[in-house]
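Q: Got a minute? One more chain.
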Amino acid sequence: MSRSGRAVELMSFGAVLRALRSGQRCARLSWTLPGKYIVLVGGADADPAAGLPRIDPFIGFLEADGTFAPYAPSSRALLARDWYVGVSGQYADRA
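A: Always. Here it is, folded:
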């Protein structure tokens, strides 16, 4: 698929998980506002002296307005095949 003259390789959420584990950002073609993406956020060890618990890795979502929050994909997002490596509005050359 091509957007703005650049090749985009669309993929399933399974492929997205592999890309996230390798440190890449991913987005969906259906996200119309530029700047959105998901990314794997690394965990952190507990610090008992500071009263901080261990934090497990999670998928984070950056909104177009700069808000960052944990991402819990819907069934529709899990089954979608419009995912790609990159940031919404900025299509990575992969195909």
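A: The chain has a mean pLDDT of 89.
Q: Perfect, thanks.
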